[in-house]
Design a protein that fits this description.
245 residues; 15 strands; alpha/beta; five-stranded antiparallel beta sheet; five-stranded parallel beta sheet
Length: 245
């Protein structure tokens, strides 16, 4: 694969170049700023860009946003010393988020994933899903620091609103996605059920409805010791649903 490495720290950049070249890939350009990276990508049309975040003139997040406007953007893997830009990286369509000093094995794994699924392909998948009259997705996709993760719908306990994103609680942990509860409810209405304005649950994992003090209710799940509050508005519909199951 053809790769652009963008990092204004010489030692860090040289280390990334060395790992990439030792793994059999080609470094077509070494850039030190976001502006240089954009020029390099337009000129060389690389498959992947390894991109730092804290850089002069234009930071990595802004650079990624500009790259995503291209007709054929490269897959973006952030390599940074800061762990608090993960959400910004998600919004910038990054498929990898590694912390410095980048672990060789993690970097090679991210490169392998990028080879299979780059940013352009992700956009095409999303367009296909949006244009399908009756979606038949069996997985939920999320971009995390490990790359693109696919989680089976049958492994998901619940979805809850988390500021601008939706938190997905599944068998192996938690991911964040940029879909809305309303969209998920409409698409998977036969398998998901709203128990609160901020929460929908997978009915397959519903264990029972529990009564609390002061007339409050919550649901419990099979397999995990967690609960979610049930709003008074949704309580009658949930009771009706449970009786019909």
């Amino acid at each position: 694969m053809r790769i652009v490495v963008c990092d204004n720290e010489p030692l860090s950049r040289e280390r990334l170049v060395r790992i990439v070249q030792q793994s059999g890939h080609e470094v077509v350009v070494q850039a030190m700023t976001g502006q240089e990276a954009i020029v390099a990508v337009k000129d060389q049309q690389p498959d992947i860009i390894l991109l730092d975040i804290r850089m002069p003139e234009m930071d990595g997040v802004r650079c990624a946003q500009e790259l995503n406007k291209l007709e054929h953007p490269p897959a973006i893997i952030f390599v940074t010393a800061y762990d608090h830009y993960a959400i910004a990286a998600l919004k910038a369509n990054a498929i990898g988020y590694l912390l410095k000093p980048a672990n060789k094995d993690e970097l090679l794994e991210a490169l392998s994933k990028a080879k299979k699924l780059n940013a352009a392909q992700l956009n095409e998948i999303r367009k296909l899903e949006e244009s399908t009259a009756q979606p038949v997705r069996e997985h939920i996709a999320a971009r995390t620091h490990r790359g693109v993760e696919l989680v089976k719908l049958t492994d998901i306990y619940y979805f809850t609103a988390d500021q601008k994103y939706v938190k997905v609680r599944h068998k192996d942990g938690i991911i964040l996605i940029d879909e809305t509860l309303k969209e998920l409810e409409q698409e998977f209405g036969d398998r998901l059920f709203r128990v609160h304005r901020n929460a929908i649950i997978n009915l397959s994992f519903l264990d029972y409805l529990e009564v609390l003090e002061a007339g409050q209710y919550q649901v419990r799940f099979k397999g995990i010791d967690e609960t979610l509050a049930v709003s008074r508005r949704h309580l009658p519909m949930l009771r009706e649903k449970i009786q019909s199951m």
